[in-house]
Amino acid sequence: MEYAVRVDVTLKRGIADPEGATIERALPALGFDSVHSVRTGKAFSLVVEADSEEGAREVAGSLATRLLSNPVIEDAAVSVAGVA
Amino acid sequence: MSLVGVVVFPGSNCEHDVVRALGALGGRAELVWHAETDLSGVDAIVLPGGFAHGDYLRPGALARFSPVMGAVAAFAEAGGPVLGICNGFQVLTEAGLLPGALQKNRGLTFLCQPATLVVASTHSALTRAAHVGDELVVPINHFSGSYVCDDATYLSLVEHDQIVLRYRDNPNGSRGDIAGIANEAGNVVGLMPHPERALDTLLGSADGRVLLEGFLAAADDAAARADLVAAP
């Protein structure tokens, strides 16, 4: 089976996010006064061949830890969207 | 005479500067393509600056998987001198050969300017010829040079005297003003500034000399060790 998988990589809490801070500073000028706590990250979409959804999640999780994120500064969240 | 291998990744761009700089100081250096897996002919290794593998994903994230990195890790483990400059420092942290990580600069600006560094430790293959407290003017040239690590790592760096260079005026938000660190043994060193670009007062500063001379001395020491072979 082929599973559509999404991996979201975000900076760990406490790690400075200068991009997020810069975006947040631009918000008042656009009238978005109700928005705060902006954090940036990366999203990856993958198709994983596996026997089960759990298997796909495991492969994507390993890939997320070893390559897609740097565990020193980033967290990775894996979600399986369903059969591709 | 010892031989320094300067690794060329696709996208490296400071490798020739490093070879020339080491040559100007009386050393011997040659380029090594990143697909090489056997580095048994060299006595020290430099990972130079640039944009290895385009810096895609994160600086150093893909270079870490280049075939040469197995030999680099084995060489480092055996105590061989390994120096990562700028992008090379990022590769060493991604590869886990040095702790912490390098994040985008505070202020999100690409910095290309002279930086004043203060020697914080001489317990490393890079700073062994300098003196603690020395102020060295060396250029920086980076976008992701802000050193980050957790509290436990920082305390460990301090405790084991692994912070080798600090910025006098922190330009990028690095934790503890860190410009360069070493591993616990002192043989693996990474720094964001470019000592190979500070060899002559005519070009702004000759303060990089004492650092690269120290590294060449470490290479000579390694050459005298028969057991040190950079093969995977």
**Of all protein chain pairs, which has the greatest interface, and how many residues does each chain bring to it?**
A-B, 10 and 20 residues
N- to C-terminal distance of chain B: 24 Å
State the helicity of chain B in percent bands: 10-25%
State the major sheet of chain B.
Answer: 9 strands, mixed
Annotated CATH homologous superfamily of chain A: Phosphoribosylformylglycinamidine synthase subunit PurS
Assign an overall shape of chain B.
globular
In the CATH hierarchy, what is the architecture of chain B at level 2? Answer: 3-Layer(aba) Sandwich
Helix content of chain A: 25-40%
- Compute the number of structural domains of chain A: 1
Q: Quote the average pLDDT of chain B.
A: 96
CATH-defined architecture of chain A: 2-Layer Sandwich
In DSSP terms (H or I, runs of 4 or more residues), the helix count of chain A works out at 2
The fraction of residues assigned to DSSP E strands of chain B is 15-25%
* Average pLDDT of chain A: 94
What is the CATH C level class of chain A, in words? Answer: Alpha Beta
Order of helices and strands of chain A: EHEHE
Can you put this structure into words, describing what you see?
The complex is a heterodimer of chains A (84) and B (232). In chain A, 35% of the residues lie in helices and 35% in strands. Chain A has two helices and three strands; from the N terminus they run βαβαβ. The model of chain B has no long low-confidence stretch (mean pLDDT 96). Chain B is globular. Chain B has a nine-stranded mixed sheet, with helices on both faces. Chain B has a two-stranded antiparallel ribbon with strand order 5-8. Chain B is an alpha/beta fold and 232 residues long. Chain B has a single domain (4-223), classed as Rossmann fold. Chain B has helices at residues 15-24, 68-77, 87-94, 151-159, 209-223, and strands at 4-8, 29-33, 44-47, 82-85, 101-103, 111-119, 135-142, 146-148, 163-167, 178-182, 188-191. The interface between A and B is medium-sized, with 10 and 20 residues.
